[in-house]
Amino acid sequence: MAVLALAPGLALAKPAKAGPDRAATKALVQQCEGKEDFSAPAPTARLYANTYYVGTCTVSALLITSPQGHVLVDAVTEQAAPAILANIRALGFKPDDVRWIVTSHEHFDHVGGLAALKQATGAKVALSAAAAAVLAKGKVDPADSQAGWLKEHDFAPVKADRIVAPGAVVAVGPLRLTMTATPGHTAGSSSWTWQSCAGKQCQTVSYIDSISALAAPPYRFSDHPEVVARFRRTFAAIAARRCGILVTPHPSVSHLFERMLGDEPLASPDACRSYAAMGRKGLDAQLAKETTK
Fold first, then answer.
1. Which tens digits make up the pLDDT trace of 188-220?
2. Which of 48, 52, 219, 275 is catalytic?
3. Which of 111, 100, 74 is nearest to 208 (CA)?
4. From 21, 70, 110, 207, the catalytic residue
5. Residues 6+ apart with CB under 8 A from 170
6. Is position 37 annotated as part of the catalytic site?
7. pLDDT score at 293
8. Is 153 a catalytic residue?
9. Is the model's pLDDT at 10 over the cut of 70?
10. 48 given a catalytic annotation
11. Catalytic position from the list 97, 107, 209, 275
12. Which residue in the list 48, 105, 141, 209 is annotated as catalytic?
């Protein structure tokens, strides 16, 4: 656990307000309309209290702030790194006050910008052991179900500063992010949970990793029962959680922007159960598809 003292010259976090910034979210949605590129820049918007969306139009990244330093969740693509840094500055924070970067899973659209962001911020990187092995090489795991699609998408290698196991806590000042292993989409998939507070108003924020069962030919999940079993354990574990505010690595999957706008509930007691059910349905459909070929 790393608890950092207030460093000289550290930019103090602004007093947090509760609830999403709907005006900023509306601007984000308008700028992103029709954009599908993983790297398409999006303006930033407050999600809740000291948690801010700083990612792109289609790939999430979150900044969690404190007077003692900040944590960045996910790194999007290499091309998106300048936009993420610009978003941090637009919020009034300094990139070099980011102390840790944590990630969801080891695909280029979520970790491609990690090396650049690590260098720009000076932050340390915490990864699961399986993700760290892939990140150290900068190439997709050959055993990954999507390897056939992603083999042309190498990324700059990154060495983990800390290997985190399930239940591990990454801490900066008052911030406490707890890691949960949610393997399936990749072997190293990790999810993160924390409390985001504005004064005495607090919400649990759960950044739950992707759980889609995607197979690049000739990969077949039916040939890998251990991967199917891993998925099913992950679905059960997610379904049993109370997510609070659910965020997913692709915001559209969990209707994040709609919820930030107030068109849907920001937090729902059924959020994790519904998300797990969606993943289970997708895996079952993929397995059924494989049996017909």
1. 999 999 999 988 889 999 999 999 999 999 999
2. 219
3. 74
4. 110
5. 1, 2, 71, 100, 102, 126, 162, 164, 176, 177, 179
6. no
7. 62
8. no
9. no
10. no
11. 107
12. 105
